[in-house]
Structure formats: C-alpha cells, structure tokens
User: Fold this.
Amino acid sequence: GNSVTQMEGPVTLSEEAFLTINCTYTATGYPSLFWYVQYPGEGLQLLLKATKADDKGSNKGFEATYRKETTSFHLEKGSVQVSDSAVYFCALRGPYGNKLVFGAGTILRVKS
Amino acid sequence: KAGVTQTPRYLIKTRGQQVTLSCSPISGHRSVSWYQQTPGQGLQFLFEYFSETQRNKGNFPGRFSGRQFSNSRSEMNVSTLELGDSALYLCASSLNPDRNTEAFFGQGTRLTVV
Assistant:
C-alpha cells in the first residue's frame, strides 16, 4: 500500500536558520504530494502541493520539489521564524481512491 | 469564503455512550473525508463521501459510521464508545475526489472518553 516516511523530530533551530524536513514515499501509480502544517490546538493547514514530477510547490517561503526518481518531497525554507514552530506533515493522495496518506509528522521548534 | 466548520469543538463522553460529530464543508465542495488523529497512531483515514455516497472506508470497526447529506454536510457517529476512541477527529473538504484536488481541513472535534 501507499506510505509516507518523514524524518523524526523534534527539529530545533535558531531563528533565520535553514530548514529541511525530509519526506519519502511509496505509492502505486502516480500520486499527488502535499505538505500540511498544524499549529497547537488547530486543524491541518495546506502549505503546498505538487502533482507531477519536477513540480515545485511553494508558499510563505516554504518550497518542496516532487522528485520521482528518488520518491521524495523534502520541505525547505531558507530562513525560519519563531512563528514557524508547528508540526509538519507530508502526505500523498494516490490515483486509486481518494484518501490522504500522512507521514508521522515532524515537530519544528524555532528559538529566538 | 467560509472554511470547513466542525461542531462541536470539544466533547466529553462516558464509555458506552454514542456520539455524533458534524462537518460543514466549504461551499461548493462535494467531497468530505474524516480522519482520526491520536499521538500513538497519527492521522488515520476513516471514510470519504462524495455526492452522498461513501466511496472509501478505512480500517475501523463498524462502531464508526458516517453519512453525507444532499447539501454536502456530513456527520460521523461512534457508538459504544471506548477509551481508545479519545482523539482529535478532523474533517476535510474537497471540490471533488480527483487526486490533484486540495483537501482543506476543519479545526477538528476533540473527543475525550472517560
């Protein structure tokens, strides 16, 4: 079946540091890929998406590129802020069935 | 445009009782999915509805059920509650079931079973 693997956290960074959160996937067919963010006490917010190989999703300074050859969709940001502290989820949506399959989530803590 | 609305936000129930959670999707969206989030199991898919039909169901016992109405609003029901049903239940709204379509989540209903 489809699955998503994320790097374990928590990831602790100082403000203005470079962020990478690794995400790899296993899927049947050609999935769409997503990053979601969850702030404390909240639901999930869609951060960015990519629907085909070499697509780059971007939003609020975050970027991720759909790499079919390495089955990866790593999240990056050049300069993190304290307000970026949250849990980040990588997810895929396969061509057969509509459900989202999520990774375990990565906690990000940014210190000032 | 209003987002996904879930009610209630918080619930405390006793073991053995039943509970109904409600989700109003974004206007114009016809696809609604439900997920359970727990610290141990993470985010797990419960079921998905499109145009009042259940298209997909996750690996949960029959105590978990749902439905969708003609206005796309959805409800999920859990009967004979167990302590392990304590979780954040999230509803997601999509325009349609296509894999490229974004899913937008509500703030969730926090269910505590005592």
The mean pLDDT of chain A is 94.
